[in-house]
Every structure is written in structure tokens, then in C-alpha cells.
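Hey, resending since the last one bounced:
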Amino acid sequence: MFSSNKPLEKLNIFSFRGIQMRTFHLTWMAFFLCFFGWFGLAPLMTVIKTDLGLTKEQIGNIVIASVAATVVARIAIGKLCDSWGPRKTYAALMGICSVPVMTVGLVHSYEGFLLFRLAIGVIGASFVITQFHTSVMFDKKIVGTANAVAGGWGNLGGGVTNMVMPLIFAGFVGAGYLPESAWRLAMIVPGVMLLVFSFLYYRFTKDTPAGNFDEISITNTSAVKTKGSLAQAAKDPRTWALFLAYGACFGIEITFDNIAALYFFENFDTTLAVAGILAGTFGFMNLFARAVGGIVADKVGRKFGMAGKGRLLALLLALEGIGIALFAQSGSLAVAVVTMLAFAMFLKMANGVTYAIVPFINPKAIGSVSGIVGAGGNVGAVLAGFLFKSSTISYSQAFVYIGVAIACVAAVVALVNFNKNTETAASETTALETVKA
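The C-alpha cells again:
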């Protein structure tokens, strides 16, 4: 039966009934828009490269900058979710980050563009809030699926922006603006959407099923706010195993979002529009692939426990690494697209499985664990970015190295015991239920 102030045990994606489902839908929509603003510049880089006279090394630095700031931001945002609440945190993040998104067009130098790309990258911390908010809105039986669907549909913004931003750009060119002006005007669109949605999120969501942190009773507030510290979350080796895993899956996803259109444009001599569509296809798989990972993880967890989820994650990472290495060796556009879709499936499923494990590592510090693991994704992207900026390593070689690195991470994850003793596990399950109540 539906309960207005308890976590839901079922995910009905067609329902907007109750604060839980309303928050679920607004959360993935917010993350979608954040991704749209975060990577809105990526499909326009061929134009920006010419406009600002950027070198391969400078583009590499820009790719790194776009994900570097998120490392620190995700850890800080995770802590804010635990103490300040996801509603205020998300609204503030979208409102503040809409400013550099809207105004990046004011820059006319590499240095200025680099700083703006760094500032825009902070919005990537939105993922941590998305996962925190869905974790407290859904029961432990379904939380992996809920997290995966919300995260996947939000990540879809990375694919849609590769398809839509070139069209917005073309619209301004069609209206008579020169390309060097059109890309600047195009970025105002996602910036305005973020600003508007920050007010909607603040108005129509709640921190928990029972209400906002500053509205619920002192007892319930302490149950949510008095969680384990960031240091406590960091002491658990399982947190760092997931940190590595997320760097190997989500870190490579956002790297590919940044580089895909340029890679197809330069390696296979496609048009800007075709390159954007192909890159967008990679992101579009988030419509279902990450959710599949979460659903499978929940089923495996019910049958084999946390250890089963850990083995599933290791397997998916290994398959992802093999797929990326094969993609790098593609000699034709058709083979490249097929291998891209294959490794994308395993990568995005691994994303979903990772955050089907996160809520159970330390339920007293969901935000902190989520923040650390989420930061791992960006650390992976930063490290991958150094390969793509190298003047001696081709993009294809970089993908091969990445595939090998992911296989190594898979081996590490396979060796980690994600189970704890029965007493600790029972206490953590009780804590998770208390946080959601």
C-alpha cells in the first residue's frame, strides 16, 4: 500500500504520485540538465578549436579541466547532502553553475576558456545528489534499480547534448550569426534551463519521504544528519575499491563524451552533425543500459549478497576493458560503431552496479560514500585526459591503454570482499532503514 512518508518498495516509472516519485523524476531531470550544461561544449569543439586556435595539447588540458574540479566538488557535495540536505544542495548547485554555462561565450582566449571549463565542471557533482536523493526515497530491495534508472536517465543528457547542441548551433548560424558567435550564443540555452530548474527543484522536492531536514522532528533529523563522518566512510577499503571501479567506468564515460565527436570527425572524416549523432548514440544507451545494471545487481544481491554484486561488477569491468581495446583497433566506421555500442553496454551496466552497492557500504554516511566514489569517476577521467593531451600518443593508442587499465581494476575489484560480518551487516541495514524512515 502507498505510504506518504516511507521509502517505496516499487519503482513505477510512469507514476508521479507522492513525494518519492515526484522527487525521483525531478532528480533525474535535474541531472539530465546538469549533464547538458556540463558537456554542451563538447560537440562544438571543432568550431571552438578553430575559433580560439587551440592545439591538441590545449584541447587535452580543457578535457582535463572539465572533469578535474568535479573531484573535489563531489566530495564536498556528498558531505553537504548529509548535513544540509539534497534539496537545498541541488538547487544551489544548479543556480550557481548556470552562470559560467551562460557566460562561457564571453571568453576569447585559451586561458579564459580553460578557466570557464574548470568552473562548469563543478556541476558534475550533481550526480552525488541524484544518488543520495534516490537512495533515501526507496527501500533497500529496489534502491539499486532506482539509483541506476535515475543516474542513467540523467547521464542521457550527455548523449542528447551531442545531438542537440550542433542543431542549436546550426539554428543560430541559420539566423545569420557567424560560427564564432553561434557557439557562444548556443551555450546560453542550457544555462537558462539550469537556472529555471533550480527554482523548480527547490519548490517541488523534499529531502526525505518524511519531509525536509529542517521540518521533520528532532529524532528523525538526527537519524539523517548524525551520520558517520567523511573520515569514517574513507576508512572502509570497500569505498576505495568502488572509487577505482567508478573511475574505470564512469570516468571513461565522461572522457568519451568529451572526445567522441572529435574522434569520429578526425579519424573517420565524418561531418560535424554525423560525428555528433554517433557520439550521442553512446550517451543515448543510458536510457536503458545503466538501469539494466541496477536491476541485475538487485537480483544478484538478493541471491548471492554483496559478494555477488562485487563479482558482477568485476566481470562487467573486464568486458568493458576488452571492448574499448577492440574499439581502438577498428579499421572502419561500421566496426567502430559496433564495438562502441558493445563496450558502452558493459560500461553503463557497471555504473549501475557500482551505485547498487554504494548505499550499503555505510548507510550512516550515504552522502560521504557516494561523494568519494563519485569523485573516483572524475579522477579516472582526469587520468585518461592526460593520455589524450599527449603529443606522442594517438587517440587510438590512448584507448588501448585505457582498456588495459580497466582490466587491471577489474582484477582488483574481484579480490575485494564486499561482505561484512553478519552483525555489522544487520546494523547497517537497520541504519539504512532508519535514514529513510
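The first helix runs from residue 18 to 38.

Sorry for the duplicate.
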